[in-house]
Design brief:
Elements (H helix, E strand, L loop, with lengths): L1 E3 L9 E8 L1 H10 L10 E4 H13 L10 E8 H10 L2 E3 L2 E5 L8 H9 L4 E8 L12
Antiparallel strand pairs: 1-7, 2-3, 2-4, 3-6, 4-7, 5-6
């Protein structure tokens, strides 16, 4: 089962980046309003290509051991993303990927600070869930 929201219109001075995330990381984000420091790479990918690239993880076209089930859209100051690009950026399947984690650009602290001070916001824009069999979740 898929739940999907339309992508945001980006206000002036802001840009959107997307991140495919597993349930554990998504729950942490929702509870703490920052990303955890548990992922060594923590890819974020900018714009429409980032949305397309992130979706590959939910459809099985790309794989990782974190079992992504969710795509999160972050609306960030352009200046923040441009700074992260100077720290680390690479091409992945035609999309420009920035790594926040310790084995990538290491910009997680800067990204989280932007979330803490309200300059960066997030929305869950896609969720993938397995269909439940009849009888599960209280259904008969």
């Amino acid at each position: 089962m898929w739940l999907e929201a339309p992508l945001s219109d980006t206000p002036p001075g802001k840009t959107t980046v997307y991140r495919p995330m597993g349930d554990t990381e998504t729950i942490y984000l929702v509870q703490h309003n920052v990303l955890p420091d548990t992922q060594p790479y923590q890819t974020i990918v900018e714009g429409a290509r980032g949305w397309w690239y992130s979706n590959k993880y939910l459809t099985g076209q790309k794989k990782t051991n974190t079992h992504p089930s969710t795509v999160v859209e972050f609306t960030c100051p352009v200046e923040l993303i441009e700074k992260l690009k100077t720290m680390q950026i690479k091409v992945e399947d035609g999309a420009m990927s920035m790594g926040l984690g310790c084995k990538a650009g290491g910009g997680l602290g800067m990204f989280n600070e932007s979330m803490r001070n309200g300059e960066t916001t997030y929305r869950i824009v896609k969720v993938k869930r397995a269909k439940k069999k009849v009888g599960e979740m209280g259904r008969k």
